[in-house]
Amino acid sequence: MTALWTVLRRDLLLAMRRKSEVLTALFFFAIVSSLFPLGIAPGVLWVGALLAAMLSLNRLFAADHQDGTLEQMALSPTPLALLVSGKVLAHWLVSGLPLVLLAPVLGLQFDLSGRALLVLMASLLQGTPLLSLIGAIGAALTLGVRGGGVLLSLLVLPLYVPALIFGAGAVEADIAGLGIGGHLSLLAAMLALAIFFAPWAATAALRVALE
Amino acid sequence: MSDGRDRRGTDVNNRLINWFRYASPQSFYPLAGRMWPWFAVAAALLCAAGLWISFFVAPTDAQQGEGYRIIFIHVPASWMSMFIYCVMAFWAAVGMTLGTRLSGMMVAALAPTGALFAFLSLWTGAFWGKPMWGAWWVWDARLTSELILFFLYLGFIALTSAIDDPRRADRAGAILALVGVINVPIIYFSVKWWNTLHQGASVSMTKAPSMAATMLWGMLIMALGFWMYSIAVALYRVRAIILERERNAAWVRELAEMKA
Fold first, then answer.
1. For the residues A7-20, what does the mean pLDDT come to?
2. A2-17 and A19-35 helices cross at what angle (nearest 10)?
3. From A36, which residue of chain B is nearest by alpha-carbon distance?
4. Domain segments of chain A as ranges
5. Residue A148: Cβ within 10 Å count
6. Contact status of A34 with chain B (Cβ, < 8 Å)
7. Does residue A63 belong to the interface with chain B, where contact is any CB pair within 8 Å?
8. Which residues of B touch A205 (CB under 8 A)?
9. Is B58 left (phi over 0), alpha (psi -120 to 50) or beta?
10. Would you state the torsion angle of the CA atoms of residues B99, B104, B105, B110, taken in this order, to the nearest 10 degrees?
11. A25 touches chain B (CB under 8 A)
12. Residue A90 and residue B244: Cα distance in Å, rounded?
């Protein structure tokens, strides 16, 4: 039994020395639970898509970083931002697009009308690339960092909240019979900004991580 | 630059203003040590004056009674949370372009104070919201974006504490600070762009304020007091960060406080 207490004490001591890891999980819980009130019904689908895509963000750069491919990419004459854009696009095609196609099927669980399902698909079609782009910045910043997965979510979720608000808001507006143009336009505007700036920011973060 | 000359060969020490005089931790450390007590005293005096005005001078509000007095903490704290984030982004940009390590230390020194003010803003807002709106929290544009600002501060602190190498931590944090700075104008203009529950701007640079003069003065004095406090605390904290990071340098080991 003494061995049990010893190991317990040791692990608690180690955890207290790295308080940031413990607190990061706590803040993740706080942030994620604050996401749900932002939109019931369609919001739940949006948050689900968000969390699902976030699970795969770690893999965006980690595998290439481990076997040295990322360094070769950084050394190549092709601009790294272009290569990063390619990786983000691949990530979206594999993780984001299937979510868009699956969402209507899951939307039936919430008894959404056909039109609401279309609006849901349209909003996710704009939102999932946005997640891949913003997530790429987070993935590049946390490359090889301790506690990477949860830290990544902690960084990405605050930046993603506006997209969640407008995306879920579009579907809710459609259910309520109000116009969806404003929501989808703002979402498209955010996507346009992200397509331009996010690869650039992610490249800067990658160069920081690769030194 | 070790012989005091810049890229064009000009002796930096002979120029009218040497912008880089205090750019090294070694020269900034004693400067900050002389500066912070003044700011602390100014903060104490201004906050004392502001609180006295807020409790004893400002009149009772026609609609909100006595409960409105929390704005004397809430509004200055919100202003400071946004301002400190902008200052962080500024020093982050300076650090990334000029490569000065003191800039990164300053950003790290400002973050906890900014997070504190964002937290204070959210809590005092909730204390106001409950009697006035009947709700501790609503998901309107300004409150949500201020919450995002708070999470951005926490994310910055989490990211920089998770990376062991201080230079890499500074640079990663700088990128995060610069990416997140777009949130600050959103908070500021949210009451103009959206139909929000949070009241609109009563204080503007171009029009007369829509509140009583004593209330306005109390708020401005408290804001100034919080600003002095932030400067004092940031200077004090950056001194600690300097000592921690430069602990192997000879000048640090020669300091009186190290030999105590």
1. 82
2. 70
3. B139
4. 19-210
5. 18
6. yes
7. no
8. 172, 175
9. beta
10. 150
11. no
12. 43
Residues of A (170-189) whose Cβ lies below 8 Å from B: none
Dihedral sign (CA A169, A172, A176, A177): positive
- Distance from the B158 Cα atom to the nearest Cα atom in chain A, whole angstroms: 6
pLDDT tens for A137-170 read: 999 999 988 777 788 888 988 888 888 888 888 8
Gap between the Cα atoms of A85 and A71, Å rounded? 16
The reply to whether A24 touches chain B by the CB within 8 Å rule is yes
Which ranges constitute the DSSP H helices of chain B?
25-52, 71-98, 101-133, 141-162, 166-180, 183-193, 213-245, 250-253, 256-259
The rounded mean pLDDT for chain B is 87
Beta bridge partners of B11: B5
**B159 and A157 in contact by Cβ < 8 A?**
no
- Contact between B26 and B249 (Cβ < 8 Å): yes
Q: What is the pLDDT of residues B102-145, one digit of tens each?
A: 999 999 999 999 999 999 999 999 988 888 888 888 777 788 88
Contact B113, B138 (CB under 8 A): no
Predicted structure pTM score = 0.87
Domain ranges of chain B: 39-200+211-259
pLDDT above 70: residue B204: no
- Quote the minimal CA–CA distance from A3 to chain B in Å: 30
Interface of A with B in 73-102 (CB under 8 A): none
Give the closest-approach CA distance of B121 to chain A in angstroms: 17
Cβ atoms B222, B51 nearer than 8 A: yes
Q: Would the pLDDT of B1 be above 50? A: no
Enter the DSSP assignment of B8: T
Cβ neighbors of B177 (< 8 A, separation 6 or more) are B85, B88, B89, B92, B107, B156
Q: Which of B162, B168, B180 is nearest residue A151 as measured by Cβ atoms? A: B162
Backbone phi, psi, residue A208, to 5°: -65, -40
In chain A, what are the helix, strand and coil shares in percent, each to the nearest 5? 85, 0, 15
